[in-house]
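Both lines are retained for reference:
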Amino acid sequence: MNTQHLLTKFGLTKNESAVYTALVKLVEASAYAIAKETKIPKTTIYEVLDSLKERGFISKSLVNGSAYYTAESANRFLTTANEKLEIAKLLIPSLESIRHEADKNAPNIKFYIGVEGVKKAFEDVLITLEKSNNKVIHAVADQEIRAFLPRYMPSWLEKREKMGIFTYLLTYPDPGETNEPELFKNNNLRETRLIPKDFILNSSMDIYGSKVVFFSHRDNIPHAVIIDSENITETIKKFFQFMWKFAEIPNIK
């Protein structure tokens, strides 16, 4: 690997590498002599010399009114490398800070598989809202979720109530067939409205904080997907609010 190739790998342009190498050979030379040695046009040579001088690789002196150029010591490359290293040390945390801000705004998606995974997703709802000043869930619920988690769901609902979390619940109207008719009754921590039978759901959804979670428990492998994104969650919440506006208020006493 020749010297000029190494210089270009260090960061000099092809012309800068040729000029610096020529000055090491010539020791001191005019722009004319450098252009002749490197075969670089004289119209270009001054731009190259100014660039090298600005970066500290060559120096310029006047002799009888004429400009002459000299290559600085090769140790200048070590100095430049150390300067770049110090800049890199400052640059890395700065860039990581920018990436961190970008990551905060990017959607964060978590996928849970199996019964225990679904339970973890439900727990995330309570954990997230425990830290929130706005303890509200907008839920679209398949009633069979209780049958799927017969022991866990009553316990989860009890925790939700103890935490004072209010739920706006959309579900489908089969009060005569469900084993849980009280789900259709409003109380101080829940208001229920009914989706038309034409739109019976095969999954459930909770909107909470900046997150939305989808539960699918009728598949061979139950799973849950949590999306943490203020923009996406706000969009889905608007769809919920549209459905809520036209949903039926249950006539249960």
